[in-house]
Amino acid sequence: MGVLFAGWLGVGFGFAGCGGPVQYRNYSMPAVLSPSAPADAGPADPVSLSYEDSAQFDGGIRMVLPGRASPAPEFSLRGADGNLYTTESLRGRVVWIDLWAVWCATCRAEFPAIQKVHERYVDDGLTVLAICRNSTREGFKEAAHKPWLSFPVVDASDVRRFSIPYGAFPTSLILDRQGRVRAYWQGHRQIPAVERLLRTLLAEPAPSREVLGDDRRAIASGDRPSLETSSSVVTGELFLPRKSVTPGEVFEGRMVLDLDPGWH
Questions:
Q1: Which of 12, 40, 175, 232 has CA 20 to 30 A from 148's CA?
Q2: What is the pTM of this model?
Q3: How confident is the model at residue 18 (pLDDT cuts 50, 70, 90)?
Q4: CA torsion 98→102→103→104, rounded to 10°?
């Protein structure tokens, strides 16, 4: 397990020692993500979740209750597969963000177990996003390009204003389908406990309206038809599933147009 002194947008988060044979785990949550943070807490100050805001889960994990959870930090990262992963594009899926480093032995040792979790639940709506920090490009390529590894990996070592707070490797951040932070911890993962947590979140209802991009996309004035019977289309809205769409894939969408009276 690797531990370091790190910051969130330049704010120090903390320092902890390596734990020898005892696996290190810290279930406190940075104040910027916690519903229980005191008013005078700094963004990266560790906060213990209250019993009013969360529920005890297996393995020591505390799961934040849906109505108390904070929105996930905004990020936009390019994966080794060439795809762009953003807070918005992942909404509608349960997301396990795994922060790791090349030199963190615990991080890399747990990859095979995480791969199995990914394989079991990817079709149910789980995305595992492994984000590498504090590492060299050569080390990332060697660690990430494994023939058996199919969950997305991202090299974010060169991202200067990294939005996800952390103070140790590995760090786990669990987002629900609504894009809210439901669990956070630093250190070793007890995979069976994590798996039960993920199943709980996967069973929660998806957002009532899954869209790709903005909910409402008004047609630009230059795109409006100019016919003698009407001056314009007032608004146009396109609703699509919030997921990537591959060529040849069939999906259900909906378009709503509000038209001026008399438009044909």
A1: 175
A2: 0.72
A3: very low
A4: 20
